[in-house]
Amino acid sequence: MTLIPVSRAMTGGRRPGQRAAAPAQRRAGTRTYVLLGIIAAVSAFPLYWSLVAASNDNSAAGSWPPKLLPGTHLWANLQQAYTQANFGLALLNSIIVATLITVCVVLTSTLAGFAFAKLRFRGSNALLGILLVTMMVPAQLGIIPLYIMMSQWLGWTGHLQAVIVPAATSAFGVFLVRQYLSDALPTALLEAGRMDGCSTHRLYWHVVLPAARPVAAVLALFTFMNAWNDFFWPLLALGQGNPTTQVALSTLAGGYYMDYSLVLAGTLISTAPVLLVFLFLGKQIIGGIMQGAVKA
């Protein structure tokens, strides 16, 4: 019988200086790729169907069997929808509104979330409780007072600030960042920064914001999507004279006769900027999320 030294027995039979073997990584099998392909196809089919319907005439939307290949009317329908619904102004307004709302929400949420998570001040728990209560109140209850404030007090109806300013802060964003920074941002790191002479503002810009990049990316994505897809409040505050994309899209669906090819062509126009955001910023957003998951 061969005796194994105690030191090798404690290290699992390895010799001194020998590294442990890395655990074998599981590789995705054929079933996994088939399942992911089916899920991707089902998710992308509505967008493809919009392209097919927008590239045919109106009669193709209700034909049976349905057409599954694009037609030859796509460019003509896009031009007609762009001109009829004033999509040039609508796209510009939506880009301005969604971008400014996203920047404001990310800045205010990271500031307030940092304060609630790491700063100690009197009344912080009470303020956090009030913040959580506001999340339980339906937004529709404040539509009438908000419209009176915008129209009679400030005179902002028909202007973009009537949509941007009320959405510049988010209680959900503050709570989300606060919960993330409570665990992801070590207090010792802030204390080390203070010992090096950093003020609270410098700590926020140089320590808190880099640490909050993953949650800020997620919050920015959700905020941009909500601001881009918002319909009810821009319809009341801006009207048809200064529309966003969703308000302009509603003009194509109104009236006694609905041309589904034009409606879906307008849908493609309003969806294209969001797809571009995912195309160019998707890797950065996913990379930030994964980086935050590894750090946490």
What's the topology here?
Layout: H1 6-10, H2 30-54, H3 74-84, H4 87-118, H5 124-136, H6 143-153, H7 161-164, H8 171-184, H9 187-195, H10 200-211, H11 213-229, H12 232-237, H13 245-253, H14 260-295
Helix pairs in contact: 2-14, 3-14, 4-8, 4-11, 4-13, 11-14, 13-14
Subcellular location: Cell membrane
Protein name: Sugar ABC transporter permease
Pfam family, one: BPD_transp_1
Descriptive overview:
This protein has 296 residues and is mostly helical. The chain has one domain: MetI-like (MetI-like fold), CATH 1.10.3720.10. The chain contains 14 helices and no strands. The radius of gyration is 27 Å and the shape is globular. The mean pLDDT is 82. Belongs to the binding-protein-dependent transport system permease family. Residues 1-23 are annotated as: Disordered. InterPro entries: MetI-like, MetI-like_sf. It is a multi-pass membrane protein. Residues 91-281 form the ABC transmembrane type-1 domain.
Quantity of strands, as a count: 0
The 3D shape can be described as: globular
Largest sheet properties = none
Number of helices: 14
Mean pLDDT: 82
- Helix coverage percent of residues? 55-70%
Calculate Rg over CA atoms.
27 Å
CATH architecture: Orthogonal Bundle
Report how far apart the termini are.
47 Å
For CATH, the homologous superfamily is named as: MetI-like
Secondary structure class reads mainly alpha
Q: What are the secondary-structure elements, in order, as H or E?
A: HHHHHHHHHHHHHH
Fraction of residues in β-strands: under 5%
Number of domains: 1
InterPro entries: MetI-like, MetI-like_sf
Main location: membrane
Protein name: Sugar ABC transporter permease
Organism: Dactylosporangium siamense
